[in-house]
Automatic annotation (TrEMBL):
Positions with a binding annotation for substrate: 153, 179, 190, 276, 402, 407
A cellular-component GO term for this protein: cytoplasm
Protein's GO biological process: L-arginine biosynthetic process; ornithine biosynthetic process
Keyword DNA damage carried by entry: no
Record localization: Cytoplasm
Positions bearing the site annotation: Involved in the stabilization of negative charge on the oxyanion by the formation of the oxyanion hole: 114-115
Active site: 190
SUPFAM superfamilies assigned to the protein according to its UniProt record, in alphabetical order: DmpA/ArgJ-like
Protein name per the record: Arginine biosynthesis bifunctional protein ArgJ
NCBIfam families: ArgJ, PRK05388.1
Length: 407
């Protein structure tokens, strides 16, 4: 497997387009379309929030009904959540606009929205956007990058990646893009992510791989503890790589899953690092825990604590905050077994040793924590399970951004 240049258009048969539809933002693109030249098998994971946006419910129906998927239309600015029947009508109108423009069945068109909750989408602008994008669909790297920028809301950078990998003696490709910066918390975290691959794989195995990989990537990031109404990850596989269809678990399946893991983990970490107002990536790695469940619980508690996040922002090696978060996480452990370290590109420093604080060099700790990415590394000494979670620091700008989000 190797990382290559590009994103959602990297795999054979995938095209993208974007436009400025004027849905909420002015002076920037705010709609994108992803299209496969042939119908795809699809898999998806969606928000665990009981309040699900209309577009989430629309996409869930397509994925669960085992229908082919051939296009996705995404808008930013308005979430189409808590919008009643009018919200569903907007989904259908968008999909039927694609049907008319591209000649594909409307029930093979997924839709996704991100932005302000409780506002109705301007259907006329959505349909006009579809009409504008259809003839502009292109398989270039530039078209994919433009699409990844059009779906941004409070993101400060676009997020895309692609890889080549070997399966069945041929080279296949997986590319993707995501957005997410705030209202991010596991199960699923707030995000939109779209993956396109030319590998041939049975739908049940595609869904299995996606569900398992999401659990260890996107579901292991948090920015602010809020789980969105709109979380959606869709993976489309069109089979144009020409490999023998992956129909059982084995070497080919593992090769695909390795590529999927790399792509999803990369996108997840980019989202955590780009948390609203963030100045650095905050990683927690828990090793030698009793179980994977405990390791995940502990790691997520560390990066999810507001006090921990504030300490990371202030470059304060206040290890008590991280131990405190572990203690209320729900995982059972003996504090007298725990070792805690701070790590970054600037070095590493042990600050807590099996129940006992260590007198450490404060200047060295400050140097470590000033890096753009800081890891709290915890050795539980109770088993052999491990997990990693990602978040960001909590800065003054987070409050500023969210205090006037609607405007």
């Amino acid at each position: 497997m190797k990382e290559i240049k590009g994103g959602i258009t990297a795999a054979k048969g995938f095209k993208a387009a974007s436009c400025a539809a004027g849905i909420k933002y002015q002076g920037r693109t705010d709609m994108a379309m992803v299209y496969s030249e042939v119908p795809c098998v699809s898999a998806g994971t969606f928000t665990s929030n009981v309040v699900k946006a209309a577009c989430v419910q629309w996409d869930m129906n397509i994925v669960k009904a085992n229908k082919p998927m051939q296009a996705v239309v995404i808008n930013s600015g308005i979430a189409n959540a808590c919008t009643g029947q009018e919200g569903f009508d907007a989904c259908e109108a968008t999909a039927k606009g694609v049907e008319k423009a591209l000649g594909v069945s409307f029930d093979s068109v997924a839709v996704a929205s991100t932005g302000v909750i409780g506002m109705q989408l301007p259907v006329d602008k959505l349909v006009a956007g579809v009409v504008a994008m259809a003839p502009a669909l292109d398989d270039s790297i530039e078209a994919g990058t433009a699409a990844s920028k059009a779906i941004m809301t409070t993101d400060t950078v676009n997020k895309e990646i692609a890889v080549d990998f070997q399966v069945g003696g041929v080279t296949a490709t997986l590319g993707g893009m995501s957005k997410g910066s705030g209202m991010i918390h596991p199960n699923m975290c707030t995000m939109l992510a779209f993956l396109g691959t030319d590998v041939a794989i049975e739908k049940s195995l595609l869904q299995k791989a996606v569900s398992e990989v999401v659990a260890d990537s996107f579901n292991m990031i948090t920015v602010d503890g809020d789980t969105s109404t709109n979380d959606t990850l869709l993976c489309m596989a069109n089979g144009l790589a020409g490999n023998t269809t992956i129909s059982s678990e084995g070497a080919d399946y593992e090769s695909f899953k390795e590529a999927l893991t790399f792509v999803c983990t990369n996108l997840a970490k980019r989202m955590a690092a780009d948390g609203e107002g963030a100045s650095k990536l905050f990683e927690a790695k828990v090793v030698n825990a009793k179980s994977v469940a405990d390791a995940k619980t502990l790691a997520r508690a560390i990066v999810g604590s507001n006090l921990s996040k504030a300490a990371i922002f202030g470059c304060d090696a206040n290890f008590g905050r991280f131990l405190c978060a572990m203690g209320y996480s729900g995982a059972d452990f003996d504090q007298n077994d725990v070792e805690l370290f701070f790590k970054s590109v600037n070095g590493e420093l042990k600050v807590f040793d099996k129940g006992t604080p260590i007198v450490f060099d404060e200047d060295k700790a400050l140097e470590i924590m000033k890096a753009d990415a800081v890891t709290v590394y915890v050795d539980m000494h109770e088993g052999d399970a491990e997990a990693t979670a990602w978040g960001c620091d909590l800065t003054y700008d987070y409050v500023k951004i969210n205090a006037d989000y609607r405007s």
